[in-house]
Structure formats: C-alpha cells, structure tokens
Write a structure and sequence with these properties.
By secondary structure, this protein is of the alpha/beta class. The protein is built from 11 helices and 27 strands.
C-alpha cells in the first residue's frame, strides 16, 4: 500500500487530461475537503468524442459537443484547471514538468488517451485524416464538402467520379458510423442542392481488414450492421487491407487480388496508438507498455513501480478482468475515473479498495436513420429500437444541460427535415490546380464556441 496517508493535508491530486476519465475523476473528487485537485489539459474544453463524426459530416457544430472545463468544475472550490501541457514526470520528487513550470503532486492521475495509428505509414496522415479531435473533425468536414463542390465544377466524368468516391478505412464503430453518415449525406441531405451532379451517385466504400465489420460485436449484429450499411448505399469490403494511399489512388489487397480505387477523399478509422505520455511513464517511472504504447496497470490502475501514479482511460492496458484488455470506450473511462477518486479517498483513511471491475452495460453503434445495433449482454437489438436507445444514451452522457438540449433539438429538426445545418467549409485554402489543398497548421483551428 502507498504511504499516501502520511502526506500533509490537503492531499494534492494532479490529473493530466480532461477527457472522460480525467473529468469524471475530477468531478468525483471535487467536493472532498481532504484534497486539492489540479486538472491539466492542452484544451480548455471537454469534448464528447463519440459524436465527432456528426461534426465531420455537418450534422452538429463543435460547440454542440464541447463544454468548458472551468464551467463544468466551477462548483468544485477545491479544483483548479490549468490549460497547459505536461512534458515530463519526475517520480522521485513527485513533480510534473509543464511548459515553463513544475507542479508537485501526492497522487498523479494520467488520462491522456490515444491518437491515430497508421501502422508504420505515418505519411498517410496528411491524406487520410483520423477522428480524435475537433480539428480532425473540421478537417474531415472541409474535405467532404469540398469534394462535392469540386465535383460540381468538374466536367471530366472520370475525375468527377473520383471526387464523389469516399473511402473510410476501418470497420469498427467509428468507421461504421462515419460511413453511414456519409451515405445519408450524399443520398438524402444533399440530393437536391446541386445542379451539375447527382449526389446519390456518390460511392462510399468502407474497408475492414477482418472478416466482418464491428469485430467486437456478436456476429449476428455485425451482419445486421452490414445489411443496414448496404441498404444506405455503402459498399462494404471486409478482409481488405490498404497497402498504399497516394495521389488520389487507394491501393487495396483482398487475398491475392490487388485493386486500385480512384478516390479524392480518404478518411481513417482503422487504429489507435497511445499518447506520448505512455513513453514518458515508461522512461521515467518504469511503466510497462503494450505493443501500441498503452500502459500496463495493476488491478487498482496504479503503476506497480509507482503506486501513487495511476493511468486510466484509453491509455491504460487493464487486463485483470476476463484476461483481455478493456475496450477503449467512454463508459470504461468514466468508471475508472470514479474508481480512482474513491481509491484516493480510501487511501487517505489508511484503507484501500478491491481491484477495479468494469460493469459492462453493453455497446451501441449507429448506422443511420432508424438503424443501429445494440449489444446489451443477453439482449441484442438492431434497427429502430437500438437506434432509440443509442439516442437516449448519448443525450444522457453529454456533460452539460445546454449541450443535451441543443443536440436533442438539432437531431429532432434533422430527423423531420432531413437537413444538416453545420455544413461550413472553413480555412482559407481550398482547391489548388484542381486538387484539395492541405490546411495549414496555423489556419486549421476553427474557434470552438463553448
């Protein structure tokens, strides 16, 4: 057991990362008189990542799914929020190094999540953006709607077809939801808004390396999801690997067969890797990492070599339940954040808690209008009932009331009008010599209205 109980009062808890895991830990510790909490994040807002694909396809605005961290934690008088970045950890002195300053801790909670993984092909990042941040979603949105605008002006049929071909790499929940939203956008929302093109001729191609979409789900729900995607107009190709992406051409390998697809818009949803904090913890705190850089944690989510450092959320490799790592989903992060808060409080009393155990309430993935799949343990649903559950669950987990109200209103309006109102193309760069210009780092950050 840690010697936490010997530390001077109040106990200093530092949380790195304002995602689901870090935020839920901060909220649970927020009313404790025995601790002070410092939450550090590079952003000043919490982002509801499960709905990022709706920002990317113009159904929601970034501010609809974002909440200021200071506002969320304003009632917690023992909590301080810092907009900063951690560059190093010094466990021997219990300090973290920020840009230009240091901060002492008694308990350190690291919840910095994961980023995109291109499996050794990092050069693809510029041509196949992933979907983890607001900037990612806005870049996707820019590429998607510029593609339709370019097709409207293109007179060459072959080039026009390439602009109207969208390739989504990865058939997990993000890829399935993104592909379904793209198909709805092309075949329903935009179909009467252009004059030179028929947007219903757009091809959405969803690629998955394994033998079915939604691999973590039961096979029958994977089959339902693929059928729903096909009905929406998505072409699903499983057991298919991407071997190259270059100059508007995606090279695919399916068994011994190689194929090239002309596509101007490629979107990445195929894999993740741990944030850089995993490597820092390995080098400075002796943490063990798995093959994608996640930190292997003890049953109480601490580092075996440093019991006052905890790793939670997507960055944690927790394999003490069912002999396999827990999935990188929001409910896991939320429950781990709340568990760590309880554990810190118990340690201050000289006690502890049983190992963390995830209570799995099920998993959901939406495909499109009235179509979703839900794996609720004994109950497996698809179609309209699963879609209703998906809506209510996502509204429930949005952090602040105004976000819940805005998103519910937007979805209600979109459902009955089949319109999406956030279809803005941002950034000064657009087309250069008939090609999509990359968005510069200085200009890619659209202000988030929170």
């Amino acid at each position: 057991m840690s010697n936490t109980a010997t530390h001077p009062s109040p106990h200093r808890v530092v949380i790195v990362g304002g995602g689901f895991a870090g935020l839920y830990a901060a909220k649970a510790l927020g009313r404790s008189k025995d601790v002070t909490v410092t939450l550090i994040d590079k952003r000043n807002f919490h982002l509801f990542q499960p709905l990022l694909y709706q920002v990317a396809t113009g159904k929601l605005s970034p501010g609809d799914i974002s909440s200021p961290l200071r506002s969320i934690l304003s009632a917690s008088r023992n909590t301080n929020v810092l907009m900063d970045e951690v560059t190093d950890i010094q466990p021997e002195t219990r300090q973290i190094v920020l840009k230009g300053s240091t901060l002492e801790y008694d308990s350190l909670i690291v919840a910095t999540g994961v980023s995109h993984h291109y499996f050794g092909k990092d050069e693809w990042a510029s041509v196949a953006p992933g979907l983890k941040t607001v900037e990612d979603a806005l870049e996707m949105r820019r590429r998607i709607f510029l593609a339709f605008e370019a097709a409207e002006k293109e007179t060459d049929p072959e080039k026009r077809r390439a602009w109207l071909t969208f390739v989504v790499v990865g058939g997990g929940p993000t890829g399935v939801e993104l592909a379904g939203a793209l198909a709805e956008l092309a075949h329903s929302i935009l179909k009467n808004e252009f004059r030179s093109i028929d947007t219903t001729e757009a091809q959405v191609l969803l690629l998955e390396g394994l033998d079915r979409v939604l691999p973590p789900y039961p096979p029958e729900l994977s089959a339902e999801a693929e059928a729903s995607l096909t009905q929406l107009g998505v072409t699903v190709q499983t057991s298919t690997l991407v071997t190259n992406i270059s100059d508007g051409v995606v090279t695919l390998k399916q068994g011994d067969r190689t194929e090239q697809v002309q596509a101007k818009t490629v979107l990445w949803a195929a894999g993740v890797k741990a944030s850089a904090m995993g490597k820092v913890l390995s080098e400075k705190a002796g943490a063990e990492l798995d093959r994608v850089g996640r930190v292997v944690v003890a049953p109480d989510l601490s580092l075996p070599s440093n019991p006052d450092i905890f790793v939670i959320g997507d960055l944690a490799h927790y394999a003490h339940q069912d002999d396999k790592p827990l999935p990188g989903v929001a409910p896991v992060a939320m429950q781990q954040g709340e568990y760590i808060a309880r554990l810190v409080k118990q340690r201050l009393k000289g006690a502890s808690l049983p190992p963390f155990r995830y209570s799995d309430g099920g998993s959901l993935a939406v495909i499109g209008r009235n179509a979703a799949v839900a794996n609720l343990g004994k109950f497996k649903l698809s179609g309209f009932p699963a879609w209703l559950i998906w809506i209510f669950v996502h509204i429930y987990y949005l952090i602040e009331f105004d976000n819940k109200l805005i998103v519910m209103t937007q979805w209600f309006w979109s459902y009955f009008t089949r319109k999406g109102g956030a279809r803005l193309i941002t950034g000064e760069e657009g087309m250069v010599d008939g090609e999509l210009a990359p968005l510069s780092v200085e200009r890619e950050k659209e202000p988030v209205e929170v």
